[in-house]
Amino acid sequence: MSKRLISVLVILALLTLACIWEQISVDKYLNDIYNQALAIENYVDDITDVNAPELQAMVERLEASWDKHESMLCFLINHKDISDISTEITRLKSYSETNQEQDFKASIKVIIHYTDAYHHVMGISLQNLI
Fold first, then answer.
1. Residue 1, helix vs strand vs coil
2. Residue 61 and residue 53: Cα distance in Å, rounded?
């Protein structure tokens, strides 16, 4: 085999590995946020006081997880999309503090929607390799 062919195959293998790593990382981080948001949504269905200490603790954990994963996700996903989730988490926290139940519920649904939608956008494809 020629050196060029080997070089091309090595580069292709590295790009494929990078794409797989990207997919696994994004899935892991988004699943963490998605599952926490679902837990908050399920908890809120049973209460009317969104200013409850247990709920605020759940929102704090969601925000901490988001802060932990946000920098890596910014590297892998469009920055505007990531800022949309950040904005909703900030709103969620504010709605909890001011006990705005309907706005809180709407905001958690938006977070769930965004995290679910990004799973579909970030699939492995030839375009990601290029």
1. coil
2. 12
Token pair of 42, please?
């399920």
Q: Which of 8-17, 99-108, 113-122 has the lowest mean pLDDT?
A: 113-122
Residues in the chain: 130
Query: pTM score, two decimals?
Result: 0.81
- The pLDDT, as a whole number, for residue 19 is 77
- Is pLDDT above 90 for 81? no
Residue 102 C-alpha from the chain's centroid: 23
List, in order of start, the domains of the chain with CATH numbers.
25-121 (1.20.120)
- In the DSSP assignment, the letter for residue 49 is -
Task: Return d(Cα 57, Cα 54) in angstroms, integer.
Answer: 5
pLDDT for the residue numbered 129? 47
Enter the tokens of residue 118. Answer: 């990004």
- Give the integer Cα–Cα distance in Å for 127 and 121: 12
Q: Would you give the DSSP letter of residue 48?
A: S
Distance CA 16, CA 128 (A): 9
Direct distance between the N- and C-terminal alpha carbons of the chain, in angstroms, rounded to an integer? 25
Provide the pLDDT for residue 124: 54
